[in-house]
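Study this chain:
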Amino acid sequence: MLAAVDMGTNSFHMVVVRADKQGKFELVDTAKEDVRLGSGSPDISIITPDAEERALAVIKRFKQLAKMRNADMRIVATSAVREARNRRMFVRRMLEVAGVEIEVLSGQEEACLIYQGVLQALPVYDKTVLVVDIGGGSTEFVLGKAGKPLYATSLKLGHIRLSEQFLGLGRSREELKKEQIEELRRHIQVILADSGVIENVQSTSFEMAIGSSGTIESIEQMINHTAATSTGSQTLSNSNTLHEREFTIGDLGMVVKKVCKAKTVEQRTKIPGLPEKRADVIVGGAIILEEIFLALGIQKMKVSPYALREGVIVDALADTFANYTPGVNIRRVSVLNLASKFNTEQRMVSAQHSARLAKEILVGLQECKSGGQDCVSEVALLLQEDDIELMEAATILHYVGMFINHKAYHRHSHYLIKNNEHLLGYSPLEIEIIALLAKYHRKKVPSSKDGDFAMLPEEVQKKVQAMCAVMRIAVALDRCDTSAIEHIHVYQRPGSVMLAVVPAVDSTGALRDVSLEVWAAHTELPYFEKIFKRKPSIIVADEYDLESMNTDPVSFSLSS
C-alpha cells in the first residue's frame, strides 16, 4: 500500500494505491483539499503563516488517512515551496509538527514525474507526446517517448501567480479589465519566447499533445458542458455524456472568451462546468493555455486524469521492485486489474478464455476459408481492431457483477464498469460500449428502448449489436467455466456460417465433453442470424475433421 501526496500551489492531492509483487497498481482512495499555499505572497516568494497552518491541517488529515490504509506515504512539494524564501523553515515545521518529511522537487523533476503519471492513464507509451501541466505557480512541459523524457522544463507561469500579479486575485469584487488581460498575454508571450520551449518543442515532432491537472481538466469540463450556437453563444448540453476527453484550439478560444466576458468572480461561478473554487483563477489559467497553444502550434489536446501524484507512485515502485517497468499497455492492465478485483480465480480464467474464443469467432467472420468474398457479412467488416479490443475487454469483465449478486449479475456488471476509476486509457464512449456489452451478454439483447444504447451513434449501435452477437456465443461456449473448448474455426459460404468447435484434451488424452457448451451456444444463434444475416450452425470437430474441411479453396483475409 502506497500513498503519494502532491503539495501544489493551489491544492494538495493524495492518492492511495495497492500494488502487487510485479508493481502493477490499482487506485484505492483519493483526497483533495484546496490550500492555496501560494496565496497572499508577492510572486509566491513567501509561505505565509496562514498558508502554513492550512497546509499543516491538511497534511495531518492525509497522514491519518494513509495510516488507516496502512500505506507508506511519500510527499512531494512543487513551485510554492521550492520558490519560497522560507522553505527550509516550512519543511522543518512539517517534520516537527506533523511528523512528515517533505521532498521539494526541482521543476525538471516535477515535469518528468508528471510524464510518468500520464503514461499510467493513457495508451501513449510508444508515441512522441508533448505533456503540458498548468499549476498554481508553474507550468511544466515534457516531450517524451517510450517512457523516456526527451525534453523537460518548468516555467513560472502559474494560474495563481499570474492572477495575483495581473488580475487582482483576492480582490474578488473588482471587474476584469481588457488592459489587464492584454498585459497578461504580453507577459506570457515574453516568458515563452525567452524560455527556449518553443524552439525545443518545434525541433521534435510530437504526435499528440496531452494536458493534465486542475486548470486543463476544468477547461475540458466547461467545453463539454457547452455547445456553440450559430451566433456564438453557448447553451448547456447535458445530453452528450459520451464525449472524448479532448478539445481543440477553437474550443479553447470559446472558453477564453466566455471566462473573460464574465467580469467578476461571482459571474464566473455561474459558468456551466466550472468548479466554483476555480472561478477566481480560471481566467489566468485559460489564457496561459491559449498562449501555449498558439506559440507551439497545438491544434488539439487530450486530457489525462493522472499527473504528478501518480508519477510519484511509479517512481516509488521503481525504487521498491527490482527490474520494475511500468505497464506499457495501460488499457489491458487496467481491465485485468478491475476483473481481478471482483472475480474469483476460476471466473477470471473463464472470462479470459471466453474473450479469446470471441476474438477467434470475430476474426474468423472477417475471413473466407471457402467461397468468394460475398460470403463475408458487411456487418463483420464494420469492426476494426479497436472494436475487437473493446469486445475482449467486455468479455473479460462480464462476470464482475457477481461480486454484488448472482441474480441479474449482468446489470451489476454494467454498473460497476460505468462507475469506477480503474479503466484507464479508454474514452467515455469506449467505457459505455464495454459496459453495454457486459450488460447484453445474456438475457435481453440491445434495444432502442434502452436509453444508454439509443444514445450511441447509429454506426456504433450496429457495431455493438455485432460484438454482442459474437460475445454471447463465446460466453455460452464456456458455459461450465471449464475451458473445455480449445479453439473455434469459422467456415463461411454465401448465406451461411459454420462454427467448428474443437474440444480440449483431458489428462487421459480423450476429447472433453462439450455437449452443454454447444447446447448453450445454440440458444444464441437466432440473434446472431438476425445481426449477421447468415444462417449459423455449430459442429464439434477434431484435428482430422479440420484437415478435411481445410481442403476447400485457400483462405484469404478480408480485413485490413
Observations:
- The two ends are 44 Å apart (CA to CA).
- The first strand starts at residue 2 and ends at 7.
